[in-house]
Amino acid sequence: MARLVIVSNRVSTPRERLSRAGGLAVALRDALQKQGGVWFGWSGEVVDRPDPSPRITNAGKITYATLDLSPVDHEAYYNSYANSTLWPLCHYRLGLIDFRREHFEGYRSVNARFAQSLAPMLRPDDVVWVHDYHFLSFAAELRRGGRKNRVGFFLHIPFPPPELFSALPSHRELARDLCAYDLIGFQTESDLSAFTRYIEQEIGGTVHPDGTFEAFGQRSRAATFPIGIDTDAFTGLARLAAVSPETTRLKESLVGRELVIGVDRLDYSKGLPNKVEAFGELLGRWPEHRNKVTFMQIAPVSRGEVAQYRALRRQIEGGAGRLNGKFAEFDWVPVRYLNRSFARPTLAGFYRASRVGFVTPLRDGMNLVAKEYVAAQDPADPGVLILSRFAGAAKELKAALIVNPFDVDGMTDALHLALGMPLDERRSRHAAMMDVLHANTITTWRDRFLEELNTTPQRT
Ligand code: GDG
């Protein structure tokens, strides 16, 4: 069997405790362990003079190979081009884009340096699977070095419509780089169709019904692979965590009140201010919920070096503070806002203890929190998922209460409906969503992608 090489910005090394590693890291690690292979990417370290050769750790049949970044590269590639240009662009936020030519050059030069550093480790029949928007140019750089391996790419975040993508000053160069991949995977049909429309309308390429396409003189294939979770494992985790000391403490602290839970990285794509506002509206419009419901928003800080993320943090703190000031009683605080992360089992127990999972991103590739929330529920007495129509997960979890996250009034109505939903309706919605989560898991996603990549004709 050919070896597998995974390339991703962050590498989940064996030192990472299993309680921290998410389902994706575990699924990729399992595939590497089975086939033997390499996991290659950034170490997470920024140092003045990075070593050009990767740091190697071997564990079983897996070789972990990581590179450090210099402060200049970290700023241009990671903070600027990836997180201040591509991230807002792919989340439809043109107004937040900060484009500088030198950031694009820095991004490409990091992609080139990483590709050059991986190349000597590659065997001719290795299959390479590259992840996410940090490495759109990676295959093009491998090709420049003469590598003909099968190289696949999966975009975890949305692909924007051609009208938005073409606003990126470097869009043609970036698209040309992307077409050096043999297989390009998207989360949903709308991402795929945005991409193929771009190829046809902007590039003048030809797209065939089976997803193969020709553009820039290259032939490639694009398809959808909606990512899943390890459904049974997560349900098991939540069942065990239902009686953990943390869940018990949480329940005791609620003294019988219902819990609405939100778990999102602190990111403007997640729609956090609108959530807080909708919860405030709920308490304003339906006073019977006052002192009866608590909203707990877990929001670990991410990308704190990017200005927009710092501004968002202040905005949410202001919103939650005002709401608490207005409605809190001496024995009840409506919003518990936590800028910290929790171990996965703790999170699973918290989901299970919550009557409502409140997942309303303004735009999201998939959103795994929505899937985890459903998997964590007690089937005999499940909670209700409120889900944004603009999360990729809404295409699958149709039995959720689907809302428009820009419509605060509509979200408020959904909260009221969810809190009063009868048991039989909660059960039937939950069962329908569990069927979906059993049919498409993280393993089926991974195996489908690899099968399609393995059967792609190799370049000559
Ligand atoms: C990107 C795309 C796509 C969160 N807080 C804690 C914690 N988490 C875990 C969740 C979940 C993961 O992080 C977040 O995944 P999401 O899918 O919700 O969102 P992104 O981070 O934006 O992920 C997204 C995803 O890639 C996969 O393709 O779905 O659309 O944006 O697993 O549980 N985990 C722990 N403690 C926390 O406090 N342990």
Structural summary, described in words:
- The chain has 460 residues and is of the alpha/beta class.
- It has two domains: 4-228 and 442-454, 3-Layer(aba) Sandwich (Rossmann fold), CATH 3.40.50.2000; 231-439, Glycogen Phosphorylase B (Rossmann fold).
- The protein has 16 helices and 16 strands.
- The strands form two sheets. Strands 3-4-2-1-5-6-7-10-9-8 form a ten-stranded mixed beta sheet, sandwiched between helices.
- Strand 3 and strand 4 form a beta hairpin.
- Helix 2 crosses helix 3 and helix 10 packs parallel to helix 11.
- The longest helix is centred in the C-terminal third of the chain and has 21 residues, at 307-327.
- The protein is globular, with a radius of gyration of 23 Å.
- The two termini are 20 Å apart.
- The structure holds GDP-alpha-D-glucose (GDG).
- Residues 20, 22, 156-157, 227, 263, 265, 298, 300, 341-344, 347, 364-369, 372 line the site of GDP-alpha-D-glucose.
